[in-house]
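Exercise 7b. Backbone tokens:
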């Protein structure tokens, strides 16, 4: 089927006054043309992509897009908008629009066609012809010519001239990736510099020739996601920016890259041949750096906790609480002693189910033992890449050994990462460079970070951790309720962002300390999980109670939010918060804080760190109050958001400013 037909072209027809109206109208036209099975689902997915970042490209062009199962046939919809509509570009509204239609699992050939169209949009002659086309057939002919096969082969290496290499990548990998690539190439031509670009998009990625990388003076990373195999560029001066700046500021980026090539102090891609990470953007603030590395550590830690926590809960379910008690063998609990003493062919007197519970509990405990080392190791990884992993894990293990807990893991990981990163900047002879990332950096960074933990920092941090634990365990009455309110509010304030992750990490990091005699950590985990479920469930309920207050896309998102909320995925409320942040987040904070307070006051416990209603077996009979706490918070939030939407009007703000604010939610 052709990528575009006259039925997929709209010339100078009013499709709506705002971008959500335009997208919804076009989705209906696409479905009528047989390219989508569900117009509402297509509109919802495109609007969800818009909520991440605006697709107005400047120069009067917009490229809303999504990779979605709602699309049945890949293609393009072209609209020449009259009047022009604001899609969030900094220079004003768009009068030329392409909606790029990419189904999930689309063939590479289709994605390549769509990517060529995205690249052509930086061609002024092409866009000028679109603005003057008289008929849909003329538009189809222009697009067909633009997406015809082009020779994308790498240029030969010319070691005598200046050259740059670049990588472009965006989350969807359809539009921005290829537009940034073509913009950088064109900017290089204007500057008299060859720019060779590797596009890491949905159409696949052809790695740059190593000879071209070796000959390049500097590298530009215009990316919103991680660059694959960054170690190929190790040692190159680097300029790293979001992918959209690769489109809007291509000339300035080429100039910056050439200046970096001439500056010995310019940021460089970190590591030697074994390293695989780019240096952070030169303008990354200390706060942004700390946020990035801490979230990196948390994201890698969570799988250990999720698997281990569920195994511990299964162990309790099958073997009873007694398996966690100390055994007659020093250093072993009952579960460990049973798992090591018996086998399937030599079962204990309690039977098979009890034995399997002991085994599950033992495996879960081993997984949970990696919690602090994994947190520290991947914090160090976020700072120094692979050379930081080993010293980070060692420092985390020392923190656990000294009783410093997750606070010690954070400090140890930061120390290991800072030392490893600093050592990566050393200028060493060529014969020694290969040993740095695999021997010397891990050795010396481990000595420094772990030595400081043992000699100086471990004891005070352990005392602080113990004091914090004792304080939490001593809370009762209003103190418990206040803690639930604080944790609940933190879970809702940014819906999966750094504040949410701080509350969740606090609960998860202390989960292993819970026991029948010390249920405090389990109570905190239950309160955090219940509060995190409130925002998406409340938005889903609100779309049912008063459909008129929500757009078609939001009502569609509300259907998915039921399952997301039930699964403890707070991010299910993000599409609602992106469209109306103050009212949605404000109402969510109130409801989630209410849920946290009820859960803590009721003594609800959870031995599982994730899963929502699907892990109620890990709640030791307290699950009815778990559900009650959630239900109350959901009703409070849904009712409040409906009242706010009906009676509290937002103060109008310039559309471009609003788009930028929403993109940061």
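Sequence design result:
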């Amino acid at each position: 089927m052709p990528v575009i037909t006259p039925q997929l072209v709209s010339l100078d027809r009013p499709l709506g006054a705002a971008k959500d109206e335009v997208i919804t109208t076009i989705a209906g036209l696409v479905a009528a043309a047989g390219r989508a099975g569900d117009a509402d689902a297509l509109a919802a997915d495109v609007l969800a992509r818009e909520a991440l970042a605006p697709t107005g490209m400047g120069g009067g062009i917009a490229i809303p897009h999504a990779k979605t199962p709602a699309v049945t046939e890949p293609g393009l919809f072209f609209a020449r908008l009259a009047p022009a509509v604001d899609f969030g570009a900094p220079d004003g509204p768009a009068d030329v629009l392409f909606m790029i239609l990419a189904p999930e699992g689309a063939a590479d050939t289709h994605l390549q066609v769509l990517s060529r169209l995205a690249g052509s949009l930086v061609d002024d002659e092409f866009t000028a012809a679109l603005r003057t086309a008289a008929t849909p057939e003329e538009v189809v002919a222009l697009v067909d010519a633009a997406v015809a096969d082009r020779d994308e082969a790498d240029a030969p290496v010319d070691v005598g001239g200046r050259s740059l290499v670049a990588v472009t990548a965006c989350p969807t990998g359809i539009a921005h990736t290829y537009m940034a690539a073509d913009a950088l190439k064109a900017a290089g031509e204007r500057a008299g510099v060859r720019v060779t670009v590797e596009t890491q998009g949905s159409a696949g990625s052809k790695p740059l020739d190593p000879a071209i990388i070796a000959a390049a003076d500097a590298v530009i990373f215009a990316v919103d996601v991680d660059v694959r195999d960054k170690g190929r560029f190790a040692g190159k001066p680097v300029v790293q920016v979001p992918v959209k700046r690769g489109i809007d500021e291509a000339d300035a980026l080429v100039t910056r890259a050439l200046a970096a090539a001439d500056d010995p102090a310019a940021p460089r891609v970190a590591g030697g041949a074994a390293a695989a990470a780019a240096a952070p953007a030169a303008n990354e603030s200390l706060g942004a750096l700390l946020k990035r590395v801490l979230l990196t550590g948390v994201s890698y830690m969570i799988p250990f906790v999720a698997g281990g926590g569920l195994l511990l809960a299964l162990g309790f379910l099958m073997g009873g609480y007694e398996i966690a008690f100390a055994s007659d063998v020093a250093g072993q609990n009952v579960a460990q002693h049973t798992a090591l003493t018996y086998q399937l062919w030599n079962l204990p007197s309690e039977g098979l189910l009890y034995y399997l519970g002991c085994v599950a509990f033992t495996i879960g405990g081993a997984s949970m033992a990696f919690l602090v080392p994994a947190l520290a190791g991947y914090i160090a990884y976020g700072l120094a890449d692979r050379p930081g992993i080993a010293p980070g894990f060692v420092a985390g293990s020392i923190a656990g050994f000294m009783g410093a807990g997750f606070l010690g893991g954070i400090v140890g990981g930061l120390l290991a990462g800072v030392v490893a990163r600093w050592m990566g900047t050393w200028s060493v002879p060529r014969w020694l460079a290969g040993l740095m990332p695999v021997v010397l950096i891990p050795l010396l960074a481990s000595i420094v970070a772990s030595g400081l933990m043992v000699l100086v920092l471990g004891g005070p941090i352990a005392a602080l951790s113990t004091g914090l634990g004792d304080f939490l365990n001593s809370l009762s009455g209003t103190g418990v309720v206040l803690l639930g309110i604080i944790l609940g509010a933190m879970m809702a304030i940014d819906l999966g962002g750094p504040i949410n992750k701080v509350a969740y990490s606090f609960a998860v990091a202390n989960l292993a300390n819970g026991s029948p005699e010390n249920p405090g950590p389990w109570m905190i985990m239950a309160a955090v999980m219940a509060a995190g479920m409130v925002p998406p469930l409340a938005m889903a309920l609100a779309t049912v109670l008063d459909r008129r207050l929500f757009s078609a896309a939001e009502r569609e998102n509300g259907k998915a939010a039921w399952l997301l909320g039930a699964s403890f995925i707070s991010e299910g409320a993000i599409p609602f918060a992106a469209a109306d942040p103050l009212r949605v987040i404000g109402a969510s904070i109130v409801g989630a804080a209410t849920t946290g307070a009820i859960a803590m006051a009721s003594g609800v416990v959870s031995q599982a760190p994730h899963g929502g209603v699907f892990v109620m077996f890990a709640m030791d009979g307290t699950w009815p109050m778990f559900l009650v706490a959630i239900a109350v918070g959901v009703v409070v939030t849904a009712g409040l958001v409906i009242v706010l939407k009906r009676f509290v009007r937002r103060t109008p703000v310039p559309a471009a400013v609003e788009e930028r604010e929403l993109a940061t939610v």
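Instructor comment: Residues 340 and 359 are 9 Å apart (CA to CA). DSSP finds 25 helices and ten strands in the chain.
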